[in-house]
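Changelog note: in this version the structure field was regenerated for every chain. One regenerated record is shown below for reference.
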Amino acid sequence: MVMPTRIPTTRSTRWHRAGTVALWTATVIPALSLGLAGVAKLSTHGEWDRLFVSWGYPIWFMFLIGVVEVLGAAGLFVRRTAWLSAYLLAAVMLGAFATLATHPGTHLLRGRQAPMGSTTPAVMFVLLTIVGTVRWRQRRVQARPRQGASADGSLRRYWFPASQGQGVGVTAPDAGTAWFAAKAAVHRLPPGATVSRRYVEDVGLGTLGLADFEAASKQPGVWFPAGTVRPVHLQAAPTPEIARATFVRVDEDGSAHALTAAEAECLATSFDATDGARPAIKRHYDSRWPSGRLEGFLPRSELPAHIPIQPGASSKT
């Protein structure tokens, strides 16, 4: 039995988009500024050579900084090297800040020597540090399985319940990809049907009454509906006795209880897949719902050995 999960809400999606725009803004500004400055340093006909000499640096160092700035600016737009390029350019800006702070005087402004402080490299340093940190964290996250993704990157089956007792079946590497595919398949459902963000992962097709789609569901993409849309019902256990023998209830404080008669009956009841009152089945003991709550029904096989099962009579619900 798997734990129902929910794709991020519209509000979180908007925040994600705003963060993406801010990240790319913080990337483009230093990339253009330092990329153009790097190209200018590689030219033998300019003011940069005189500035570097006045600061006490050799000409070869100017060319080295120019190459680093050009390559670093280009690397900011490559996913695998963005974090490294950002940190490398941030180090260059730190050096520029120190140079201008210890050698107050002139800097290039619109092709001429003009008074300028160390504010510009300081701002660039902050932007590049932010970009480098975010890109590094994204790189680490990408190395882990995404929400609803298998550890080995293989495909998984997702079932998105729809209104009117219908649903959409998708095979994809992660829940996010599956959700976009499910939304695109809404037109295959009867008019007025809507797909829920709440999905069931690795659901058995026999449970859904869709055993005929077993072969199709092994390929990536939308495998259902592909013709007639059927009502969908989910049932945790065939009988109350089996429910009491195979499930426990986990409370918010982490304690585990045997099922009461009412709870066992609930788990043995067939619910419509879109019914919000259907039992909350946890996949793992420490799994939490999108709201952050821990409570729910858990297969006994997933209960840690050190957690005792208390009598059902002490149930809080």
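Spot check on this record: Residues 8-142 form one domain. Residues 1-13, 108-116, 141-152, 228-232 have pLDDT under 50 and may be disordered.
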